[in-house]
Each structure stands twice: as structure tokens, then as C-alpha cells.
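User: Hey, quick favor. My workstation is busy. Could you predict this chain's structure for me?
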Amino acid sequence: MIEEILNMAKIVLIPVLLLLFTVDVAAEKKVVFMIGEREYGTKDTLQEFYKTELAPQGWQANFVMAPSRGEVKNNFPGLEHALKDADLFFLSVRRRAPTIGQLNAVREYLSAGKPMIGVRTASHPFDTRGQAPSGHAEWLGFDEEVLGAKYTGHYGDETFAIETLEGGKTHPLLEGVVMGESTKLYKNELRSPASHLLLQGRRENGDLEPVAWTHTYGPQKAWVFYTSLGVRQDFKDEGFRKLLRNAVEHSTISKETVKKRSP
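Assistant: No problem, here it is.
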């Protein structure tokens, strides 16, 4: 009798466990981190951010990183395969020229209307100022086309205050975000009506620069979030980490919901 009951329990439990496993797998999201810069150490800070903030939420990550120096610094092995089933593309690259196939994979991903988050040097990721090796490619207008802004340079090491725009205080990306200051302010000029400014940096002399905004790219309206913040110290700021967590969460919202909620 006991043996019959145990067998019945197995029959009932196995399908339930399989169903739970299937639902869990289906709920998993995949993020691809493309990293290629040596100035701000994002190969370390972004991996720590993922392990601490995203992995516990069930995100799977694929880190595609290029070396800091030498001819191989323009090669991102595995990027094409990784982007094929990615739910989110996270970019931190400075002046690299990926192989033609790798850059085409980035274009195809974005053209499909999939979301992207860019930090710091992602405003000038694929502009090598004409130094692309044979078989590699540049994307000179990436900042204006994808981010909706023109990167024009940066200031020195001075500290600047971070301010929330009046219209951005109710934006879901800024929910629970409190930030004070940072350093190494970038110069960017928003040039697209689809760009929605959230945060700005104020220098001591009163000059202002945008530091965080959203944009949509292409006919499929890929959702893009970019922030020029991202120095090592920023990753120690809970407000900055919360901003990135909010952006990751927002990237998973359906396009229909995004249209109703915010840019």
C-alpha cells in the first residue's frame, strides 16, 4: 500500500516539477555586456554590479570583453553568437573597431528593436578616428543615431553636482534614486526629439551638461538608456546603482507598456 502511494506521488510530482522548471527557465533574461575600455575599469565594476544586483534577480550574463591594448583590442570574440538571443545589450566601449561581422551583429540587434543600456564611453564606442584595421569597421554616427546626442569631449577632473530635471522626477528610472555629485563631466548635446533628459550635471561656474537620458532608435524603436556617469566612484554610490537597476528593469517592459508609461 505504501509503495503504491509513493508511486502515485511520483506521478503527480514529476510533471509539477517539470512545469516549475520550465516556467523558471522561460522567465530567465539574458544580458550581454560588451566591454572594451581601459580608462574607467568597467570590466571590474560591471562584473561586480552584475553579480551583486542582477544575478540574484535571475539574469544570465555573457561578458564579451576585448583586451586593453594591442591589435586584439578591436576583437570581441563570441559577440555575434551572444547577441542572437540576448534580451538586453549593455555597452561600455571606447574607440574600438570590432570586426565587420561583430559590428553588424550590434546593428542587427538594435534594428530588431531590442533594448540597450550604455554607460560612460558608450557615447564614442566605435569611432577610432580612422584607425580601424582591415576587416574591422567603425560606426561614426553611433552617438547621434543610437543615443540621440552628439559627444563633443569632456572637462577635467573637477567635481560637479547631479541634478534631476523637473520633468524627470516622476520617471520610473529615477524612482528611489538620490545622487549628489560625480567627477569627469562629459560634453554631450542632445539632438533628437526622441531624447528624454533625466539628469544633468552642473559645474561650479553654472554650466550644464546632460548626464542621463533615454532615446529610441530605428523604425522598430529600440529603447535606449545612456548615462555619461560610470567612473569607479559612481559604482560605490547606491543612487547610481539604483539608477542602473531601474534601467535594467525598465528594459524588460513590453513596448506597449513603455509607450503608456514613459519615453
